[in-house]
Write a structure and sequence with these properties.
The structure is a single chain. The chain has two domains: 92 residues, Helix Hairpins, CATH 1.10.287; 74 residues, no CATH class. It is 66% helix and 0% strand. The chain has ten helices and no strands.
Length: 206
Amino acid sequence: MSQPGAVDELVAVMRRLRAECPWKREQTHRSLVRYLLEETYETVEAIDAGEDSGDWSHLAEELGDLLLQVVFHAAIAEERGEFGLDEVARGITAKMRRRNPHVFGDVDAGGLDAEAVNDLWQQVKATEKAGRPVEDGIPSALPALLYADKVLDRLERAGRPVTPEPVTQEPGSADLGERLLGLVAEARAAGVDPEQALRDAVRTRL
């Protein structure tokens, strides 16, 4: 369990480091991007390791490193008078309340399963983003399988489902992308996360 004031202490430590540590003081949002990516992937790796070993202590450490990145970016923004960690926390708290009306609103949660709750989340999100392009908010730099999954999901919810084109099945042909997209569509139809499925398959070969 977290200790009262632990996050406040971390914020205070970061503020002091920004003031007294030359390296920390020189960092910007852009210079920290590589570390944010590294810590994210290390967190994913810790989750995989925890699934294998049942030891989740490493995940706690990696989540701490990930939290450090959030606090670091918030500290930079605070110095520039833009926002601080409190604004970040308030923003995500408000979003959680809006997008979970079955818990915080007047939607009856009785009989809702996980899929129905996700659909409800997506409906609220779509209302918030009404009028924006379908691809809005989907980072193109996502891993390709995850990117395809999210785009297919967004198009389906917009009433524009994608059916992959017929392929020739010729090894190395230009149809390879279509075959991969077809597998993503197949995974979605089966309720399988294609990104995680491929990760799991690769891990069994190690």
